[in-house]
Every structure is written in C-alpha cells, then in structure tokens.
Design a protein that fits this description.
single chain; 345 residues; TIM Barrel; 3-stranded parallel β-sheet; 12% strand; binds 5'-deoxyadenosine
C-alpha cells in the first residue's frame, strides 16, 4: 500500500513515513486527496461553521530575542507600546458588539504584566463577559502563574512549540530560551485544564522535512485542542531578513495532514497565510482549517505588532470588517458563527 493510503487508513505514520508523505507535498493529486479527506472530517465534526476569535495584541514589549521575530528584544526599530486596562476592555467591548465570543490576549513576554496585573485583567474581562472564552498567548511562565490565570478565568492558552526538534529549536532561539521548558509549559497548561494550542512555522530557517515529521508526532502525543501553523515570513530587522519565506502550498498540505491526524482540532487559517496569499485563508478553510482570528487591536498600534514583514493589519482582516469577512468565508461554502467555539470532545 502506498504511503498516502496508509496515512488515510491509519491516521498516523512513523517519523520516517511522515517524511515520505511530506516529500509528496509537491504532487497535486496527493494534495487534493488529503485536502478532500481533511475537509470531509472538518465538516463531519464542525459542519461548515467557522469560529472567529478577536485578537488583542496588547503589548509588543518582549524580553526574548527569538532570531526570526520582528518584535524581539534587541530590535531597536520597534515602537514599543502597551495597552492600558481601559484600552483592552474597550477592544473587548467593541469585539463583543461585533459578535466575538473569544478574546485572545496576545503579547510579547513583557515583565510589566506581572502575575498580579495579568490576573486582575483576566478577572475584569471574566466579570464583564461571562459568556466569552478568554485565551492567553503570552509565552512561557511558571506553572503557578498559569494556575493563577486559570483561576482568574482564562480558558485557553496558545503557545506554539515552534519546532519539536531540540537542535532546530536551539538554532532559532538564543541561549537562555530552552526547548524543554517550552514543552513543559504545554504539559503544565494541559494539566491545569486549559484548552491548549501548540504549533509551528512552516519553512522556518533550517527546517527540514524530518523536523516537520517530528512536529506532527509531537502534536499527536500532546493532543492539543488547537494547532496554529503559518508560513515563516522574513522580517527585515532580523538575521533572517534574506531567507526564503515558507510556502503557501506546504502550509495548506500540513493543514490537511493535521486535520487528518487530529480530526477534532481547532485549526486557524492564520494571518501569515493571508499575508502570503490574498486568498490564503480561504484556501486554508478548504484544506481543513475552521478558525479565523481577526485583529481587534486599536488601529493606532497595529503596525507596531510586526512579527514579520507586510503583516496584513489594516484592511479587511480587521475584526471591524466582519461583513467582508463573512462574505469571504461564504465564498468557500462556510459560515461565520457567533459562539465561543470550543473544541468538540
Ligand atoms: N514569520 C511567521 N511567523 C512568525 N512568528 C514569529 N515570527 C514570525 C515570522 N517571522 C510566529 C511564531 C510565534 C507566533 C506568535 O508568531 O510562531 O509563536
């Protein structure tokens, strides 16, 4: 039996076999076979419903210096900002009015937001929006901090593992960032009852098919509720300025593979995918994705949250453009729903 049929039958493969499967990502017929299966699984568990998340990028200060990231600590060209509690709450208010029932608080690892400040912020949002999910995406902390946030009312946590290969992780991050701590964080979050999102960049510098095969097996082991993947896109103020971006094609292929591997997972069609291709997110929805995360941040700060070059952030992908978003989603036979959008169990 060929590798594609084996994958469709077993829904998993060994690391070596995943490499063989990924080698076929250039084959249009293989891509189409996996895409159809992924779409069928997505329809089976989620119908044609697409969940929306209001993304609030509330600080671009970061104590880390990830080599690929535009807002890394040592980039002097970033205009740093932090939103006040009032500004964050007003993003939520606007989002709620537009139909958002999940707020994603995303930021750099900003020491200003101590456990106390975060907890207070979460408490206020929880109190004002008891019917909404609160998702955090603020990087690595200790388990005790995660516990406090959970008790304050946070439901979900996004922390991409970035790569499941320790040596590759080392090459993307400076000394002081630690692969095993990051992985430990993900298991801690699970244990604390968060719905957890892991994920990685597609086509990051030095990434080999073997690394992606490991990513897939890691995801299978972790069993996260969410998986965020998007193409790597160079940022001009990083050492990877001249590197090639990850491909849309490979990202779509991986979305389908991940949907087949974890049929019930929540899978966003990411902003990075929409940046690389004007209809990248629509293509993502047709490849097995079922979540879109429009930007709810204040307009004045959006261009300063620049993880990579040309990040789309002022036009139709803004949370405010919900009408055009609906049309885009409907153009591929799906429907935007106003719902917390928890993962099906
Ligand atoms: N290209 C694409 N994605 C990036 N991220 C950070 N920098 C880049 C880049 N240059 C992703 C990382 C991080 C998430 C918030 O954004 O995977 O976890």
């Amino acid at each position: 039996m060929d590798i594609v049929s084996r994958f469709l039958k077993e829904r998993t493969l060994s690391e070596e076999e995943f490499v063989l499967l990924l080698q076929q990502s250039g084959d249009a017929a293989v891509r189409e076979t996996l895409r159809r299966e992924a779409l069928a699984l997505c329809r089976n568990y989620y119908g044609n419903q697409v969940y929306i998340r209001g993304l609030i990028e509330f600080t671009n200060y970061c104590k880390n210096n990830c080599y690929y990231c535009g807002i890394r600590r040592d980039n002097p060209h970033v205009r740093r900002y932090r939103l006040s509690t009032e500004e964050i709450l007003s993003c939520c208010r606007e989002g709620y009015g537009l139909g958002y029932r999940t707020f994603v608080l995303q930021g750099g690892e900003d020491p200003y937001f101590t456990d106390e400040r975060m907890t207070e912020l979460i408490r206020q949002i929880r109190e004002e929006y008891p019917d909404c999910a609160i998702t955090l995406s603020i990087g690595e902390r200790e388990k005790d901090s995660y516990r406090k946030f959970r008790e304050a009312g946070a439901d979900r946590y996004l922390l991409r593992h970035e790569t499941a290969d320790a040596a590759h992780y080392r090459s993307l991050h400076p000394e002081g960032m630690n692969f095993s701590h990051r992985i430990q964080c993900l298991y801690d979050l699970k244990e604390l009852g968060y719905q957890v999102g892991a994920g990685f960049m597609v086509g990051s510098p030095g990434q080999k098919l073997e690394h992606m095969a490991k990513d897939l097996l890691f995801l299978q082991k972790l069993q996260p509720e969410m998986v965020g993947i998007g193409p790597f896109i160079p940022h001009h103020d990083t050492r990877y300025a001249k590197e090639q971006a990850g491909s849309v094609e490979m990202t779509l292929f991986l979305l389908s593979v991940i949907r087949i591997l974890l049929p019930k997972v929540l899978l966003p069609a990411t902003t990075a995918l929409g940046t690389m291709d004007p209809v990248g997110r629509e293509k993502g929805l047709l490849a097995g994705a079922n979540v879109i995360m429009p930007n709810l941040s204040p307009e004045k700060n959006r261009k300063d949250y620049s993880l990579y070059d040309n990040k789309i952030c002022t036009g139709e992908e803004a949370a405010q453009s919900i009408a055009s978003l609906r049309k885009r989603v409907e153009s591929v036979g799906c429907q935007v729903v106003t719902d917390r959008g928890d993962a099906v169990r």
